[in-house]
Amino acid sequence: MYFAGSQGEEFDKTMLDMGCARLFSQLNDRKQILKHLDLLKDKDNKLFIDSGAFSAKNSGKHVDLDSYIAYINEIGERVTCFANLDIIPNSSDMVELARCAELGFNNFMTIQKECKYANKCMAVFHKGDPVEILYRYIYYYQQNPRLNFISLGGIAGADPSTATEFAAKYCDIIKQHLPNVKIHLFGYTRLNDLHYINCDSVDSTTWIKASIYGTIITPWGRLNISDRRLAEKGSVHNYDHKSKAAVYDFVKTLGFDMSELKVNPSKRIEYNVKYLLNWCERYKYTPMKHRKKALI
């Protein structure tokens, strides 16, 4: 689990001590990355650098490929992996999807030629991209076994059933052809479905967002525990005695007290981080028994 975002330098130190892997955007987080590299020092925590392509698309910014490569050349020795500069399409039109996929492939090839740490670059195959692009990546990876990472994107916020089906299917295809390459899923943290997907890593901002909205992550999903939302029907504190006791007892197993979590957002963040770390330790890939038949 690569934890995306930041909650301040002090909590970043805490997360390092907890063994967290982190993800930062080179577009928006360069100051934070510099501080994080200093905090890493002799630690071996993993660090993922994202290109910021998706954020740039939404904010109207531009990511310059040459600048990105120069930046990775500067810090790449301390980086575990970094994302290709993929091109986000303007629509779901097939011609537009194919155009952007081709441009993204060209960016990947440029990185392979000009970046000192090209082996750490992570190609991105998006939901909706022509499948031929994936096989071009696979062929290139087979010819260059120094490459360590590949990823699937375009599934954050997508329809859950189709996103899971896509991720499971294409992770299996990639593992079949590239068994030693690690697969990352961008923005996919549906914990109930992840065990069906043969991937190696995901990234998440849920640890922060859940806390902000007064919720914690549990085996029963995200539960509302904030004292500011006590009047809401979905509040854990309004559950029947048996159900509420089960939640309270589970929280204690992770070393937390509900009285703190319901009033302290920072404690909720710490809890959520610990829950996700524990979930990762228990993760076991379980292949789907049934798959939907393709229309074509």
Structure in words:
Helix content is 46%, strand content 14%. By secondary structure, the protein is an alpha/beta fold. The chain folds into 2 domains: 203 residues, Queuine tRNA-ribosyltransferase-like (TIM Barrel), CATH 3.20.20.105; 68 residues, no CATH class. The longest helix is centred in the middle third of the chain and has 21 residues. It is globular. The protein starts with a strand and ends in a 14-residue tail after the last helix. The relative contact order is 0.10.
List the helices and strands and how they pair.
Elements lengths: L1 E3 L4 H9 L3 E5 L4 H11 L6 E4 L2 H7 L5 H11 L5 E3 L10 H21 L6 E6 L4 H13 L5 E5 L6 H18 L4 E4 L5 H4 L6 E4 L1 H7 L2 E4 L2 E4 L16 H13 L4 H4 L3 H18 L14
Parallel strand pairs: 1-2, 1-8, 2-3, 3-4, 4-5, 5-6, 6-7, 7-8
Antiparallel strand pairs: 9-10
Helix pairs in contact: 1-2, 9-12
